[in-house]
Specification:
By secondary structure, this protein is of the alpha+beta class. It is built from 9 helices and 17 strands. The chain has 3 domains: about 90 residues, D-Maltodextrin-Binding Protein, domain 2 (3-Layer(aba) Sandwich), CATH 3.40.190; about 80 residues, 3-Layer(aba) Sandwich (D-Maltodextrin-Binding Protein, domain 2); about 80 residues, Alpha-Beta Plaits (2-Layer Sandwich), CATH 3.30.70.260.
Length: about 290
Amino acid sequence: MRKQENKVMRIAIQGEPGSFSHEAAMNLVGDAVIVPFSLSADAFAAVANGAVDAAVIPIENSLAGSVSEHFDLLLAHDVVIERETLLRIRHNLIAISGASISEIDRVFSHPVALAQCRRFLANHPRMEAFAFYDTAGSVKQLVELRDRHAAAIASEAAAHFYGAQILQSDIEDNPENYTRFFLVRRAANAVQDPDANKISLAFSVENRPGSLVAALTELSALGTNLTKIESRPVHGKPWEYIFYIDCQIHSAEEGSLVLRALFHRCAMVKELGRYREARQPSPEENSSTNKMP
């Protein structure tokens, strides 16, 4: 078992037990104690103040794009990305035991999950969609209310966790639906993987012509493969931006060269973490109900 100071790791997630974040956390640290929070900001604060050992957060979905708030929180806190994992997202229509699909007239889930199941909802016009704060939370709610006419869209793990039944599986519009999750630790406690082949960074450049191009040209000159770039506004400074990038690296030296190249061209640089790039699971993988407690 993976332990921190001879204790089982306490890992914060945003959302309820049985959520996709819970599933990702168990993939990353199988013997962890999961500590759920309603807000991502509270999960990050718990890492920063030592209430938990780490947090597992979604950073990007292959269909919906980036989770912008989490980039801001990574920059604002003294935390480091230690590991990443990719989770195949399978959505299911879930109801209380004994309910039938013909009885369902309301469907609850996170707005992103609802958006990823538009075709299914369009084919069932009787079902009215309602946004909820969490996929697993929507299952928890319908089980507590015992409403035969309500359903939720969530993972298979959520159905098992709360004792609900799956009325229809794999209702997402696109099966190529993956979410990338980070395991985030306090910088003082993070352990750098000697086999890290990926680095995440945040940087800003001066507001003048060619400054961003000059920074990226430095990376190109090193032969570094830039796999992602994201921009986020600087709070309180209209039309100024922080850029977030992921780069593939082949050695610790290359990671250090990337940092030095950006320091040379940028007004601010923060290393967010060096870690091993996650392998994309096959469509048959990540049916991980058996991994959930």
